[in-house]
Amino acid sequence: MSENVSSWTEQEQAEISQRIMAALEQVIDPELGIDIVNLGLVYGVELLEEGHCVVKMTLTTMGCPLADVITEEIMKALKSVPEVQTSEVKLVWYPAWDTSKMSRYARIALGIR
C-alpha cells in the first residue's frame, strides 16, 4: 500500500493498511464468489493525509458488467475504516489481469492449478 500520510506513525500506517485490505477482502466478485484481494484484482491502495483513499484495481475482463456493483461494494466496505473519509476506485487495465495474480486460496477454491 502506497501512502502519503505524514501525520501517522509507521505503525499506525501499517495498521490502517491492514484494516483497508481486510475491508477489501469483504468485497466478493459476484461471478466467482471469491474476494477481490485474493483474486488479485487490487493493484494498489493509497491513503492521503486528509483521509481520501484511492483503490487501483482491475477486473477479470474488460467490459465486465459487474464493474459498478464491485465499485459500489468497495465504497461500502471502506466506510468501515475510520481513517477513510472519502474513497474512489480507479480501474486500470495494465498490467492485464490473469490467473497468476490469484492467491493460493483463490486457485484452490476455483480448482485452478
UniProtKB/TrEMBL annotation:
<protein>
    <submittedName>
        <fullName>Metal-sulfur cluster biosynthetic enzyme</fullName>
    </submittedName>
</protein>
<dbReference type="InterPro" id="IPR034904">
    <property type="entry name" value="FSCA_dom_sf"/>
</dbReference>
<feature type="domain" description="MIP18 family-like">
    <location>
        <begin position="18"/>
        <end position="90"/>
    </location>
</feature>
<dbReference type="InterPro" id="IPR052339">
    <property type="entry name" value="Fe-S_Maturation_MIP18"/>
</dbReference>
<dbReference type="InterPro" id="IPR002744">
    <property type="entry name" value="MIP18-like"/>
</dbReference>
<dbReference type="Pfam" id="PF01883">
    <property type="entry name" value="FeS_assembly_P"/>
</dbReference>
